C-alpha cells in the first residue's frame, strides 16, 4: 500500500535510508540523527509532496519530492527515494514513481527531475521507468 507521507514516518524512513546507503555501493556513513535531520529538511520544503510504501503496516520505503516553480510549467523534483534492501526488486520503487506520476498528471505538471549516482544501479532503474539522461543539464560540484 502506498499513502501520503506522514511526519510519523520520519524515524522509520531514516532507518531505511541508512540501510540503503550505508554500504560499499553508495559509500555513505549516515548516523540515525543525521538521516533524520536530512529527511526533516526535505519534508519541511514549502511545496513538499511525499508518499510512503507500507507492507504489513510497516514503512518499507518512500519517495520524497517537492514541486518546483519553472517558467513554463512546474515540475516535481525527486529529492529522495528508497526502498528497504530486502524489498528491492519487487516493483515497489516503480510503484512509488507511478504514484508521483499520477500526482503530476492530476495537476497538469511538466514531469519529473532528479539526480542520482551514475556509478550505481539507480540509472538502470530510472531508465527502465522511462527516464532519460538530461543532455541539457550538468550536475557540478566543487570540493573545498
TrEMBL record:
The keyword Acyltransferase applies. The keyword Acyltransferase applies. Residues 1-144 form the N-acetyltransferase domain. InterPro entries: Acyl_CoA_acyltransferase, GNAT_dom. Keywords: Acyltransferase, Transferase. It holds the Pfam family Acetyltransf_1. PROSITE patterns: GNAT. GO terms for molecular function: acyltransferase activity, transferring groups other than amino-acyl groups. This is GNAT family N-acetyltransferase. It comes from Variimorphobacter saccharofermentans.
